From TrEMBL:
Residues 61-168 form the MotA/TolQ/ExbB proton channel domain. The keyword Membrane applies. GO terms for biological process: protein import. It is found in: Cell membrane; Membrane. The chain crosses the membrane at residues 20-37, 88-111, 135-156. GO terms for cellular component: plasma membrane. It is a multi-pass membrane protein. PANTHER family: PROTEIN TOLQ (PTHR30625), TONB2 ENERGY TRANSDUCTION SYSTEM INNER MEMBRANE COMPONENT EXBB (PTHR30625:SF18). It comes from Marinicella pacifica. The keyword Protein transport applies. This is TonB2 energy transduction system inner membrane component ExbB. It comes from the Bacteria. Keywords: Cell membrane, Membrane, Protein transport, Transmembrane, Transmembrane helix, Transport. Pfam families: MotA_ExbB.
Amino acid sequence: MFWLRDKWYDILAFIDMGGPVLWAIFILLFVMWLMILERMWYYSFTYPGERKRIINEWNQRTDTTSWYAKRIKDAKVSEASIKLRSGLGFLESLVAISPLFGLFGTVYGMLNVFDIMAIAGTSNARAMAGGVSKATIPTMAGMVAALSGVFFTTYFKRKAVVEREKLEDRMQSH
């Protein structure tokens, strides 16, 4: 149990080294991963039941060849597609904002460096080291956060297209 407390203190020390902007990146990353987990849950557990229900409703129809039936099919596929893509725009926005938060952390850290230079009156390397770490750590954290989200947004967008096509193919006329 002590190792868990030690790891928590290591995380807090890392966040302290990066300055207050790192807290914002941490919160942004937490929300991003909540969204990723929600989409994983939807694709793995919720959508298969919805897909089965839609296909069963379609197969129970007697008329599947008329113009009206094709419009119903299009509507059901569109509704499923909207649910499949739900939240992906917000997730993409979080991915896009992450590096910007990192750059904001860079600016914040460099302001600390300039502040130290103004107070010390010289360019003392030891005095500036804290500000430089506050400048580089948020940049790195913002980029890592964005990279972790890019993979999943690409995967989810592709999965939504594939699932829509599969649903449309399974709703055959009979």
